[in-house]
Amino acid sequence: MKLQITHRTRYAYAQPVMESFNEVRLQPTSADGQVCHSFILKVLPTARLSHYHDFNLNYVHFFELPEPHDTLLVESNSIVTTSALQVGPADVGFPMSRLAECAQMERCYEFLLGSHYVSLGPDVWRLAMDATVGETEAWSAVNAIMRFIHKNFVYLPDSTTVNTPMSEAIAQRRGVCQDFAHVMIGMCRSLKIPARYVSGYLYNGPEDQLQGAQASHAWVEVFLPEIGWRALDPTNNQLADERHVRVAVGRDYADVAPIKGNYKGTPQKTMIVEVSVTALN
């Protein structure tokens, strides 16, 4: 599927601010069947853009605005071709009893630990145990966790913020895609299943009824030995497919925020985010 994505963020400050330093993670990846054909990033006031790859190999642009300004516009435009990686039953027969092996794998270790938004206490372990009663295979357990979240948590826009921790989402049993992803990551990690956060976009076609489209979306990837990373979308209770556009991965949202930074000046500001995902074929 060929998709065009526009992501526009506008900030308006109550008073001029200065010395603004920002990191942007908005460029889709070219890997695992996804190809980013073009990416254009625009910043106003005009700034010099630099870029690098972070620890998780995400593409990061950064810029600074030393002079006073009362507005900031960050807009990205991408064209991406996606494909779905299918996982069949014969591919995922890894027993839960062998999951301890994942802790010895360098690429998995940090995705088994607690992180900024994901805590691993007895409450999330108990929730994971209840969701996976009788499961002996890791992939079956992961899918059971996804079904449990979709059944027992309510998708409710504006019920949480980007700073809401996983523990609060569990207590309230509601949230948005970011919260669903954090809860699933916590439940998987509590069972020693490596899990990481994925940020990106979701195309909602004319006949689709998907939650979290036309905004930044979040889902989960779990690691299966001898298979690799596989993606699931707990918000929509399905495997990630060609409608999902992958931008960045990390331990949780703190690692992959689309825009983050700091500046000197008033904390009073407004932010408007607009996302458009359209099909080109």
Task: Describe what this molecule looks like in 3D.
The longest helix is centred in the middle third of the chain and has 15 residues, at 138-152. This protein has helices at 122-131, 138-152, 166-172, 177-190, 253-256, and strands spanning 2-24, 35-44, 50-53, 59-65, 69-81, 154-155, 174-175, 195-202, 216-224, 228-233, 238-239, 244-250, 259-264, 269-279. It has 281 residues and is an alpha+beta fold. It has 2 domains: 2-82 and 257-279, Immunoglobulin-like, CATH 2.60.40.2250; 89-256, C8orf32 fold (Roll), CATH 3.10.620. Helix 1 packs across helix 4 (177-190), helix 2 (138-152) packs antiparallel against helix 4 and helix 3 crosses helix 4.
If helices are DSSP runs of H or I spanning 4 or more residues, what is the number of helices?
A: 5
Mean pLDDT: 91
Let me know the largest β-sheet.
Answer: 7 strands, antiparallel
Identify the CATH architecture of the largest domain: Roll
Fill in the CATH topology of the largest domain: C8orf32 fold
Portion in helices: 10-25%
The tally of domains stands at 2
Strand content: 35-45%
Q: What global shape is seen?
A: globular
Give the tally of β-strands. Answer: 14
What is the first-to-last residue Cα distance? Answer: 7 Å
User: What order do the SSEs take from the amino end to the carboxyl end, as H and E?
Assistant: EEEEEHHEHEHEEEEEHEE
What is the C-alpha radius of gyration, as a whole number of Å?
19 Å
Supply the helix-strand structural class.
alpha+beta
CATH class of the largest domain: Alpha Beta
Which residues sit in consecutive blocks of at least 5 with pLDDT less than 50?
none
